[in-house]
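Dear U.,

Please find below the material for section 3 of the report. The protein was modelled together with VIB; I have listed the sequence and SMILES used, followed by the predicted complex structure.
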Amino acid sequence: MPSFFERLRADSIAVWQDYICHEFVNRLSDGSLPEEAFRTYLAQDYLFLIQFSRAHALAVYKAGNLSDMHEGLAGLKAIMDTEMDLHVGLCAGWGLSKSDLEALPEASQTIAYTRFVLETGLRGDLLDLQVALAPCILGYAEIGRLNEEAQPQGPTSSAYRNWLDEYSGKAYQSVAQAFSDWMDRTAERYLTEARYPSLLKTFSQASTLETDFWQMGLNAAQ
Ligand SMILES: Cc1ncc(C[n+]2csc(CCO)c2C)c(N)n1
């Protein structure tokens, strides 16, 4: 049986492909992405992750039982202890210190995406929140798999390869699988067909906001 994520993905395939195969990703993978696009993306992504941590904290609050609370907490720790450290490390290599990052203003695209996820979670239940989080967590895993063999060329090749390695690596792939399994368990309890169109809309909107986030990086290099 397909997972709930696979169903949402199939039902919003055009929007999903725009996100996963965005020009930003393709050029990161072949090494032709301008440095300024990547630097802008990285800096905004740090601000994104701060808000995304709050969304995971909200998942702990929205959890229906203790086991869901533990899952939410593990997700929160994965971001605050792993994902954010990766960013601080990458940013240091690009001349951006932690205090530089925290002082930056959030771009409209960062505000739009993160507040959309938070608001969806605040007004809905755990399933609404997981569906809003899914494009981020599961999309990057797919991007990692699709670009596992990529050999970026040019001066930024090792930085771009490090970024791809993070998401194609076993550790991240299993975090993503665990999230998809968790969403399946929530769907078993809370999904009704009457709710499906609204969940699909959330998934599709979050995927579009991911596309806008890539585009923000590209626009900075125009
Ligand atoms: C715009 C944007 N979208 C998705 C991710 C990926 N991501 C965010 S949190 C996290 C860890 C989940 O446990 C991962 C992989 C990102 N960094 N930036």
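For the text of the report, you could mention the following: The chain has one domain: 4-220.

Regards,
Y.
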